[in-house]
Design brief:
The protein is of the alpha/beta class. It is 34% helix and 15% strand. Helix 4 links the parallel strand 9 and strand 10. The strands form two sheets. Strands 3-4-6-8-7-9-10-11-12-13-14 form an eleven-stranded mixed β-sheet, with helices on both faces. A three-stranded mixed β-sheet has the order 1-2-5, with no helix packed on it.
Length: 516
């Protein structure tokens, strides 16, 4: 006997549940066939049409990943059969509500939609909006580019399978979301960290056109990708460590064997560069060979976009190291090989930045440098380029953690955006005790306003002007006030921008040529 809420889609009838806010939740819905067996390391496949009844009252499996105490989703049950999404809506009888699809972060190697930080019950209860979170394949199962390995020609999409998963999830949403009260013609995709990088890349992808309308990128610019010549050797090393001769042998191995190799010796060997080994490959197929060039040439012209960063992004990674002052530079330099197709002369730009910022201790200045070249300058360039085609907004989140040393670290805005400031896990680990609830109200209101009509206004920032090349408006957000400033980062941009010009802009291939 069926109970709870029932929603009929082309892929089945989903029976949801009542939330703690007396709203509706539909959890663990498969948006693709399980990517197992012959579908391992293959693009996602649309689910079978069905009229079967499914109980959508529990979260799906997390993608296969190394267990990480900071990432709650990694501590849940894992499976390669992980391609599911979750839907929260306060009242599905209200039609044509804006739809917001969240793509989780985790450096393309971990994370998942089951993290309590991403529970959408409170978010949906405060607004007439349909909130969705999705899973996608990560690390060796979703982003390792096996194309140059023996037999790799049959796995040419392996370097961006997780991105294809994201597109398939959005196609499912576009097809089915009206049944849940959502407007299929008003879909905003937003994400944080590599989820933000995913959103940025999707805005340039031809295969994603027409399935969403607006983008919000939180702390993840367009530079988080891989060139094939940089990343394919890492896949070849993985196969060598596995001891198999070709992809057919590797693909036939049990999940646990591959998992043990990845989370054990392979992970330890690449400890400091692991965060970007699995960024999507941009080879001119799904994504342009040079995404920033594509962006500059108008690849995302159809989307209204909001982009932002936090004041002290790099402090987040201090959670992972016993001696941050010593290990953080090793971590950054290990990952810098992947920035800008591996062409970044990191030492040169670090030296220039330090010369321009002589005050304070070197560790603090180093963190500030990594914030700028890793997050801020790329985000500012995206805003500048996009302003030639559509409305775009730039923000800086400045709220300081109550935990000493964390500052306005990476991901600290998420508890406020999601209005999950009482989450005892990562939220409390970032904000500390008793964060200001009014800031969560303001953040959620601005995000939803953008989803509703393309302008992120709220009661404390009713006149948030869009960013233009003439008026480089940046909205600074914290618990005291929201203040719109004009171009506060000109000095650092001029020092570090040449890294982007040299490695992301000045090249022969154009997006227009690729599109033809």
């Amino acid at each position: 006997m069926m109970s709870g809420f029932e929603k009929r889609t082309p892929y089945g009838i989903y029976v949801g549940m009542e939330t703690k806010t007396r709203g509706e939740a539909y959890l663990g819905i498969p948006f693709a066939k399980p990517p197992v067996g012959k579908l391992r390391w293959k693009p996602p496949v649309e689910p079978e049409k069905s009229d079967k009844i499914f109980n959508a009252d529990h979260l799906g499996y997390s993608a296969m990943q190394k267990k990480d105490p900071v990432m709650a989703a990694s501590l849940r049950k894992q499976s390669e059969d992980c391609l599911t999404l979750n839907i929260w809506v306060q009242d599905s009888s209200k039609k044509n509500q804006p739809v917001m699809v969240y793509i989780h972060g985790g450096a393309y190697l971990e994370g998942g939609s089951s993290d309590p930080l991403y529970d959408g019950a409170i978010f949906a209860s405060r607004h007439d909006v349909v909130f969705i979170s999705i899973n996608y394949r990560v690390n060796i199962f979703g982003f390792m580019n096996f194309s140059t390995c023996p037999g790799g020609q049959d796995y040419k999409e392996s370097g961006y399978l997780g991105s294809l998963d994201q597109i398939q999830a959005l196609k499912w949403v576009k097809t089915c979301i009206a049944e849940f009260g959502g407007d299929p013609d008003n879909i905003t995709v937003f994400g944080e960290s590599c989820g933000s990088g995913s959103v940025a890349l999707l805005s340039t992808a031809k295969q994603a056109r027409g399935i969403f309308n607006k983008c919000i990128c939180e702390s993840g610019p367009l530079q988080l990708y891989n060139a094939p010549e940089v990343v394919t050797p890492y896949a070849e090393k993985f196969m060598q460590m596995a001891g198999y001769k070709n992809m057919a042998e590797l693909a036939a191995r049990p999940t646990q064997e591959l998992y043990d190799l990845y989370t054990g010796p392979y992970f330890e060997k690449h400890k400091y560069e692991i965060s970007l080994i699995f960024a999507p490959t941009c080879d001119g197929t799904l994504f342009a060979r040079k995404p920033m060039k594509a962006f500059k040439e108008g690849a995302a012209k159809d989307y209204k976009i909001m982009i932002g960063t936090n004041g002290d992004e790099f402090q987040y990674w201090s959670l992972y190291f016993e001696d941050p002052a010593k290990e953080m530079p090793m971590f950054w330099h290990g990952n810098s090989v992947f920035h800008f197709d591996g062409l970044l002369d990191d030492a040169k730009y670090e030296k220039s930045y330090m010369a321009a910022h002589p005050g304070g201790d070197r560790v603090s200045r180093y963190f500030a440098y990594a914030n700028e070249i890793g997050f801020n300058v790329g985000s500012e360039l995206m805003v500048e380029y996009q302003s030639a085609y559509n409305d775009v907004y730039l923000y800086r989140f400045d709220y300081k953690s109550k935990i000493p040393g964390m500052g306005s670290c990476h991901a600290i805005e998420l508890p406020f955006v999601m209005h999950n400031i009482d989450d005892p896990g990562l939220a409390k680990g970032l904000t500390g005790e008793r964060p200001p609830e009014h800031l969560a109200d303001e953040m959620g209101d601005a995000w939803v306003a953008f989803a509703q009509n393309g302008r992120p206004a709220n009661k404390v920032a009713p006149l948030w002007e869009r960013h233009t090349t003439e008026r480089r408006e940046v909205m600074h957000m914290d618990e005291k006030a929201w203040v719109l400033e004009d171009d506060p980062y000109e000095v650092d941009r001029e020092i570090l921008r040449p890294a982007f010009n040299e490695c992301l802009v000045d090249f022969d291939e154009s997006y227009a040529e690729m599109a033809d």
